[in-house]
Write a structure and sequence with these properties.
Layout lengths: L2 H13 L5 H16 L25 H25 L5 H23 L5 H11 L9 H22 L6 H4 L8
Amino acid sequence: MILATHAIVGGAIASLMPSHPAAAFVLGFASHFALDALPHWDYPIRSPSIDPTIAAPLRFDRALLRDAIAIGSDGLGGLVAAFLLFATATTQWAIMLGAFGALFPDALQFLYTRFPREPLRSVQRFHVWIHTERKINESLLLGVGSQALFVAAVIAITLVAQDGRLFATTLAAPAAVAP
């Protein structure tokens, strides 16, 4: 899955438990593995320095820059989307922790390539084991489109689970201020 999908799902989970930010982080973290078990499309990693299957020495080159921009914008976009979709003044920390938790396993993969020790070794072993081998490789449009539809379904389910309260606080008219 692309990072934005992980972050939005983590934010959606957190929105269902806004008074439990630690649980939101843990469930966001767990959701990453559940999503990786589903057949999906991943964008190609061009730099051997950050490809977890290669784990080459860190080399600052054009491929690393391109991957850093793609991965960074994907993750940041997902965090912003989760925040805009689900956060309110009282829930913003839980939403961000859920979204960060959902992104964290991929950050741990990078750390594992640099420090292949426990507990990173066990997390990496589990990550590789749970990650589906069935890929959606037909096209970028189908790959991203299927994840966009999945995200739309997650947002809809979250809206129903919250009894339509998803946008209630952000779209409500501002309260009148007494002079």
